[in-house]
UniProtKB/TrEMBL annotation:
Residues 15-77 form the Pyridoxamine 5'-phosphate oxidase N-terminal domain. This is Pyridoxamine 5'-phosphate oxidase. SUPFAM superfamilies: FMN-binding split barrel. Gene3D superfamilies: Electron Transport, Fmn-binding Protein, Chain A (2.30.110.10). InterPro entries: Pyridox_Oxase_N (IPR011576), Split_barrel_FMN-bd (IPR012349).
Length: 89
């Protein structure tokens, strides 16, 4: 089986930069105190090579990041009208 991860070439880097430059929202994934994943929508802004996210010091994800800085960020715009979906554990 071939490796599904392709090497980053100039076209891939240009696509990533354009995606980041145009993004205004993202989904921030962190780990809560029990190690369970939690994902929240955040505002994002590209600032040169850095990505800035709007995080309130009172939020659950701020506490999670203070305890464990590992995180993921999925960039994308929210739909014009959010469709709620019930979650079940």
């Amino acid at each position: 089986m071939s490796d599904p991860v392709l090497p980053a070439d100039d076209a891939a880097r240009a696509t990533a930069k354009a995606t980041l430059a145009g993004a205004r929202h993202g989904a921030l994934g962190t780990l809560d105190a029990d190690g369970a994943p939690q994902v929240t929508r955040v505002a994002v802004l590209a600032d040169g090579p850095d990505v800035l996210i709007l995080v309130s010091a009172l939020s659950l994800h701020a506490a999670a990041l203070a305890a464990d800085p590992r995180a993921s960020l999925l960039l994308g715009e929210p739909p014009r009208k959010a469709i709620p979906s019930p979650a079940r554990a």
